[in-house]
Amino acid sequence: MDAERGSVRSALPGARRSVAPAAAGPHADAPRADTRRSQAQLPRSRRPVGELPSPGPTSPWILMYHSVAVEKEDPYRLTVSPDRFADQIAWLHRRGRRGVSVRELMRARAAGRDDNLVGLTFDDGYADFARHAVPILQAYGFTATAYVVADLLGRANDWDVEGPRKKLLTVQEVTELAAAGWEIGSHGLGHRSLPGLSADVLAAQTRESRRVLEEVVGGPVTGFCYPYGHVDLPATLAVRDAGYDYAVAIAHSPLTGRFALPRCYVGDRDGAWRLRAKRGRHRLRDTVTELRRSRLAARRGAAR
What we know:
By secondary structure, the chain is α/β, with parallel strands linked by helices. The chain has helices at about 80-95, 100-110, 130-140, 170-180, 200-215, 235-240, 270-304; strands at about 60-65, 65-70, 80, 100, 115-120, 145-150, 185, 225, 245-250, 265. Helices cover about 35% and strands about 10% of the residues. Helix 1 (about 80-95) runs parallel beside helix 3 (about 130-140) and helix 5 (about 200-215) crosses helix 6 (about 235-240).
């Protein structure tokens, strides 16, 4: 679900399918028991403890998808039909934009070469990402990031109590996607909301989920996605200290920055004019967030 309404919550890469460019409430958390390991088994932080890095005046444009499929009932509006998704990707292509993984987006941004890039993200790791989204993205030379729940691979989205049951990517599918160049990021363990969790549980959610996925993909996992978009300062610090390079949230907030990147929700109703409007709204929220930070900094300075 998008930030206006509240927090959100196969064929594998291979033969390229031809896709012709087209014309133009919140739900309850159903937490599972965490996979617990001793602190000695958790990877050490790759970053020193300290303050979070100061965010820039603008944030990159990142679109947030979940499932690409056909569903008769979709109360959480997490599903975009393949035809609508193809139209949305075609619109980005016509606008001169290229969809990329957040990993690639952040690297290009650091080098000052991200002007025409847009991040494409898929939360929860649904199996239909490989079946429906990947062939369409490949047809345009786009890439994307899939955030998967490390301990639920091959299972189903049981946390969505009222939504349709959807199969999740299997271990083999995640391995093959990563080998084909698709970024795999962590969505924690058990799809649990992080704010309010104890320090040791936060460490397991962030570090242990990364460790498990790095074994699956055979390489580094550098991106994290907050389940439901729920984020607070302890959660961002846990993600940073677990060694991730970035994390994505949903809404703009005082924490907006490298470890709480805002994203634009995309649903099945979003055509060209709605996507254009969401791009403008994203820029406006960047401006408002930066103004609020400046005023807060000025008040703090005056109080000293």
